[in-house]
Amino acid sequence: MHLTPRESVVLRALAEHGSVREIAEALVVSPHTIKTQLQGLYRKLGVTSRRSAVVVAEELGLLGDHSAGHSEL
């Protein structure tokens, strides 16, 4: 699976933050931008939810050590 550098950043932020607003604030972009980027990520990962995206990303090794301790999503 090939993710763009930005998609990788958003994916890691998804594993670390609870909401679109929190991700947007952490990455200094608008919530709308994050929603759009998440749609693309979900499509590439073949999922429809944040929880599923994180689970699949972990299974594919896309999160590295960044997801440790964030299974509460």
Automatic annotation (TrEMBL):
InterPro entries, per database record: Sig_transdc_resp-reg_C-effctor, Tscrpt_reg_LuxR_C, WH-like_DNA-bd_sf
Q: Which UniProt keywords apply?
A: DNA-binding, Transcription, Transcription regulation
Superkingdom assignment: Bacteria
Xref: CDD domains: LuxR_C_like
Domain spans labelled HTH luxR-type: 1-61
SMART domains registered for this protein in UniProt: HTH_LUXR
PROSITE patterns given in the database record: HTH_LUXR_2
Which PANTHER family did the record assign? Answer: DNA-BINDING TRANSCRIPTIONAL ACTIVATOR DEVR_DOSR
What's the name of the protein?
HTH luxR-type domain-containing protein
